[in-house]
Design goal:
This is Bifunctional inhibitor/plant lipid transfer protein/seed storage helical domain-containing protein. InterPro entries: Bifunc_inhib/LTP/seed_store (IPR016140). Keywords: Signal. This protein is mainly alpha-helical. The chain has a domain of about 80 residues: Orthogonal Bundle (Hydrophobic Seed Protein). It is built from seven helices and two strands, in the order H-H-H-H-H-H-H-E-E. Strands 1-2 form a two-stranded antiparallel sheet.
Length: about 130
Protein backbone atom coordinates (compact mmCIF):
# COMPACT_ATOMS: atom_id res chain seq x y z
CA UNK A 1 0.00 0.00 0.00
CA UNK A 2 2.87 2.37 0.81
CA UNK A 3 4.45 1.62 -2.57
CA UNK A 4 1.16 2.39 -4.36
CA UNK A 5 0.87 5.70 -2.47
CA UNK A 6 4.48 6.54 -3.45
CA UNK A 7 3.69 5.90 -7.17
CA UNK A 8 0.65 8.21 -7.01
CA UNK A 9 2.74 11.00 -5.46
CA UNK A 10 5.47 10.47 -8.08
CA UNK A 11 2.90 10.81 -10.85
CA UNK A 12 1.42 13.93 -9.23
CA UNK A 13 4.93 15.39 -8.88
CA UNK A 14 5.66 14.76 -12.57
CA UNK A 15 2.37 16.42 -13.52
CA UNK A 16 3.23 19.44 -11.36
CA UNK A 17 6.68 19.69 -12.99
CA UNK A 18 5.10 19.58 -16.48
CA UNK A 19 2.59 22.25 -15.48
CA UNK A 20 5.29 24.53 -14.05
CA UNK A 21 7.44 24.05 -17.15
CA UNK A 22 4.53 24.94 -19.43
CA UNK A 23 3.62 27.94 -17.24
CA UNK A 24 7.20 29.25 -17.39
CA UNK A 25 7.27 28.90 -21.19
CA UNK A 26 3.98 30.79 -21.53
CA UNK A 27 5.18 33.49 -19.10
CA UNK A 28 8.46 33.84 -21.00
CA UNK A 29 6.62 34.24 -24.29
CA UNK A 30 4.28 36.84 -22.76
CA UNK A 31 7.25 38.76 -21.35
CA UNK A 32 8.92 38.62 -24.77
CA UNK A 33 5.82 40.17 -26.36
CA UNK A 34 5.44 42.73 -23.56
CA UNK A 35 9.05 43.85 -24.07
CA UNK A 36 8.01 45.12 -27.47
CA UNK A 37 9.81 42.49 -29.53
CA UNK A 38 8.11 42.21 -32.87
CA UNK A 39 8.30 40.10 -35.94
CA UNK A 40 10.02 42.13 -38.64
CA UNK A 41 10.96 39.31 -41.02
CA UNK A 42 8.75 40.74 -43.78
CA UNK A 43 10.49 44.11 -43.37
CA UNK A 44 13.90 42.38 -43.53
CA UNK A 45 12.89 40.61 -46.75
CA UNK A 46 11.64 43.90 -48.18
CA UNK A 47 14.90 45.76 -47.44
CA UNK A 48 16.95 42.89 -48.88
CA UNK A 49 14.80 43.00 -52.04
CA UNK A 50 14.77 46.81 -52.41
CA UNK A 51 18.44 47.32 -51.55
CA UNK A 52 19.99 44.15 -52.96
CA UNK A 53 22.46 45.94 -55.26
CA UNK A 54 23.71 48.08 -52.39
CA UNK A 55 24.02 45.43 -49.65
CA UNK A 56 24.89 42.36 -51.73
CA UNK A 57 27.88 40.38 -50.50
CA UNK A 58 30.84 39.89 -52.83
CA UNK A 59 30.42 43.07 -54.87
CA UNK A 60 31.45 46.70 -54.37
CA UNK A 61 29.18 48.92 -52.30
CA UNK A 62 26.82 50.99 -54.45
CA UNK A 63 25.14 54.16 -53.19
CA UNK A 64 21.50 53.30 -52.40
CA UNK A 65 18.95 54.48 -54.94
CA UNK A 66 15.81 56.37 -53.88
CA UNK A 67 13.49 53.30 -53.59
CA UNK A 68 16.06 51.64 -51.32
CA UNK A 69 16.46 54.79 -49.20
CA UNK A 70 12.71 55.16 -48.81
CA UNK A 71 12.37 51.51 -47.77
CA UNK A 72 15.22 51.87 -45.24
CA UNK A 73 13.44 54.89 -43.71
CA UNK A 74 10.10 53.06 -43.56
CA UNK A 75 11.20 49.86 -41.76
CA UNK A 76 12.41 49.12 -38.22
CA UNK A 77 16.12 48.79 -39.01
CA UNK A 78 17.23 47.91 -35.43
CA UNK A 79 14.72 45.03 -35.48
CA UNK A 80 15.97 43.89 -38.89
CA UNK A 81 19.53 43.88 -37.55
CA UNK A 82 18.40 41.70 -34.62
CA UNK A 83 16.75 39.10 -36.86
CA UNK A 84 19.48 38.74 -39.50
CA UNK A 85 20.47 35.08 -39.80
CA UNK A 86 23.60 33.28 -40.97
CA UNK A 87 21.67 32.42 -44.15
CA UNK A 88 20.96 36.15 -44.72
CA UNK A 89 24.63 36.94 -44.19
CA UNK A 90 25.64 34.52 -46.94
CA UNK A 91 23.73 36.82 -49.35
CA UNK A 92 24.08 40.31 -47.85
CA UNK A 93 26.71 42.18 -45.88
CA UNK A 94 25.50 43.51 -42.50
CA UNK A 95 28.24 46.14 -42.69
CA UNK A 96 26.84 47.36 -46.03
CA UNK A 97 23.33 47.28 -44.56
CA UNK A 98 24.48 49.61 -41.74
CA UNK A 99 26.15 51.96 -44.25
CA UNK A 100 23.05 51.91 -46.46
CA UNK A 101 20.88 52.69 -43.44
CA UNK A 102 23.09 55.66 -42.50
CA UNK A 103 23.03 56.99 -46.06
CA UNK A 104 19.23 56.77 -45.95
CA UNK A 105 19.28 58.91 -42.79
CA UNK A 106 18.66 56.08 -40.31
CA UNK A 107 21.46 55.91 -37.75
CA UNK A 108 21.93 52.72 -35.74
CA UNK A 109 23.45 52.82 -32.24
CA UNK A 110 27.24 52.49 -32.20
CA UNK A 111 28.24 49.33 -30.32
CA UNK A 112 25.00 47.50 -31.14
CA UNK A 113 24.92 44.49 -33.46
CA UNK A 114 23.59 44.12 -36.97
CA UNK A 115 23.66 40.39 -37.52
CA UNK A 116 27.20 39.40 -36.56
CA UNK A 117 28.61 42.89 -37.29
CA UNK A 118 29.26 45.25 -34.38
CA UNK A 119 28.37 48.78 -35.45
CA UNK A 120 31.24 51.27 -35.29
CA UNK A 121 31.17 55.05 -35.56
CA UNK A 122 31.18 56.29 -39.16
CA UNK A 123 34.46 57.58 -40.52
CA UNK A 124 34.68 61.38 -40.48
CA UNK A 125 34.21 63.02 -43.89
CA UNK A 126 37.37 63.69 -45.83
CA UNK A 127 38.69 67.23 -45.60
CA UNK A 128 39.37 68.70 -49.03
CA UNK A 129 42.31 71.07 -49.18
Amino acid sequence: AAQQQHRKMGSAGATLVRFLLLASIVAGFAAHLAAGEKDCYDERDSVIRMCKWTIKKGSPYLTPDMPCRLEARKVDMPCICRVLTAADERIISPEKLVRCSREAGVALPVGSKCGTYTIVAPAPPCAHA
